[in-house]
Amino acid sequence: MAKNVEIAAVAEDPRFTVQQAADYMGVQKRTMQNWMHLSRIEFIKIMGGPVRIRKSTLDAILAAGVQEADERVAIAAAKKRVRPVKPVANAAVEVA
Fold first, then answer.
1. What whole-number distance in Å separates Cα of residue 52 and Cα of residue 50?
2. Closest CA to 21 of 44, 55, 47
3. Taking residues 7-25, what's their average pLDDT?
4. Which has the higher per-residue pLDDT, 82 or 77?
5. Which of 4-8, 23-27, 48-52, 67-71 has the lowest mean pLDDT?
6. Which residues contact 17 (CB under 8 A, 6 or more apart)?
């Protein structure tokens, strides 16, 4: 009976290859591999062979990523330092 439950869970939450996951996320395959290496994304290694990534994991990252990106933009805007423009001595200005 446990196998039936596991099969149903797989059908509801598809598993992607690294390339499929990268395409879904809109990044390069190498970026996805870096995230896996840095433990930024959960993945399943099947019997020491191929790697699979759950769609629900990718959806959670996409949802969190939008919020994090918005926060990073807000923080960057708050920290942004505007440098004063240095006056240029003896500069000729043309008026059109």
1. 7
2. 55
3. 82
4. 77
5. 4-8
6. 50, 51, 52, 53
**What is the C-alpha to C-alpha distance for residues 70 and 8, in angstroms, rounded to an integer?**
36
Map out the domains of the chain with their CATH numbers.
2-79 (1.10.1660)
What CA–CA distance (Å, rounded) separates 51 from 31? 15
CA distances to 24, 30, 51, 52, 78 from 47, rounded to whole Å, are 24, 22, 9, 11, 48
- Specify the residue for token string 């000729």: 92
pLDDT band, residue 72 (cuts 50/70/90): low
Q: What's the pLDDT at 8?
A: 52
Which pair of structure tokens corresponds to residue 95? Answer: 């008026």
Decide: residue 33, CB within 10 A, 0-12 exposed, 13-18 middle, 19+ buried. Answer: middle
Distance in angstroms (rounded) separating the CA atoms of residues 51 and 71: 32
